[in-house]
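Worked example

This section walks through a single chain of length 211. The input is the sequence exactly as stored; nothing has been trimmed or padded.
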Amino acid sequence: MILQGPTSLDAQEASPATFVAQVVGAPEPEICWLFNHTDVIKPSSCVQMQQFPDGRAVLSITKVRPEDSGEYTVRATNPFGTVESTAELKVLTPLPEETIQCPEGTSLSLIVEATGVPPPKLNWFRNGAPFVSSPDMQITEITPTQHRLEVNELFLTDSSEILVEAVNPFGRAVTKATLVVTPDERKKLEPPVFVQSPPPQFTAPETSTVR
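Given that input, the structure is written out below as tokens.
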């Protein structure tokens, strides 16, 4: 019998993924893993399978690819029968890096959301360091897996790389954006002024010429 079946996973492309099951039986059952219920998985340079004396069966993929998305079944067989348990793997393709341009003096609101089993924790970084909120730049937790970054007023010094990572015990996913704050073109505009003007009063002889 299967005491514990494998757990469904969400994994970022090129990250590892591991399925663990625990099986008991007498005589000791033979274990195999199937992909999408039909293809028997064989060990390779990127796929390892292990069995332990306590009945644990482990399937490890070192670097998942989009085509690895699907259902993974552990099958245990002995002379008295066969039992199976299935879990799903979803391979997430990394989001492309974005560049966000905003004029100084404007506001900004960004929302990120992640999924996973179990639900991941979101961590924010700015220019490689943990994000520190300030009165003008704050992170709001809408839900544990959905956050909002709000900036009340952008300054040129706010230009930076914003990175968010989603982490759970089975993997890590990252999305990032480059924030570029551009100068306010209105600050370059000036009203007309006189650089030279006549004196308030001027008296000249009747026969002279004013220049």
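What to look for: The mean pLDDT is 87.
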